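Q: Given only this backbone (166 positions), what sequence would you predict?
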């Protein structure tokens, strides 16, 4: 399952699933991509199909392993990953080193176990209001699900996960 970043940062007001779908298609990828976000309809932990959660590794765009499987992201350790394995955008840039993402923080809107935090997901990712809050993770911690709260007007990284392997 490929974990890929959108090609530019977003505030808390985003059509993330649509962006993931569109940018994956533009990059020539044919499987389905969903936003790595909890939403008003779904917890982050359940974005990937049940049958694909345990046996497929989570890899970057170049096939390098980030996690042994989807479930291992939600073991309560905050999605600990090797920061020396890059995460790439759909257009092939390393989000950890590229200046297009000045703040190395990803939106997720979830607990460390991938459950939605309705008080901290930018009103279901529909507002960039300074007074609204969103749960996010500074990547320098080496965690995808670190528990930090930021104003929804911030422009952060949005990740997409291949949610059905073809």
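A: Predicted residues:
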């Amino acid at each position: 399952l490929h974990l890929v970043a959108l090609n530019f940062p977003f505030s808390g007001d985003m059509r993330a699933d649509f962006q993931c779908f569109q940018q994956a298609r533009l990059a020539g990828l044919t499987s389905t991509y969903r936003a790595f976000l909890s939403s008003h309809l779904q917890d982050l932990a359940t974005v990937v199909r049940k049958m694909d959660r345990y046996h497929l590794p989570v890899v970057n765009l170049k096939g390098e392993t980030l996690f042994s499987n989807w479930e291992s992201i939600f073991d309560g350790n905050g999605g600990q990953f090797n920061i020396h394995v890059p995460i790439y955008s759909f257009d092939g840039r390393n989000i950890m080193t590229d200046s297009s993402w000045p703040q190395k923080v990803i939106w997720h809107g979830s607990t460390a176990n991938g459950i939605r935090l309705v008080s901290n997901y930018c009103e279901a990712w529909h507002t960039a209001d300074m007074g609204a809050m969103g749960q996010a993770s500074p990547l320098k911690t080496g965690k995808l699900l670190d528990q930090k709260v930021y104003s929804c007007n911030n422009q952060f990284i949005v990740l997409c996960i291949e949610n059905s392997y073809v």
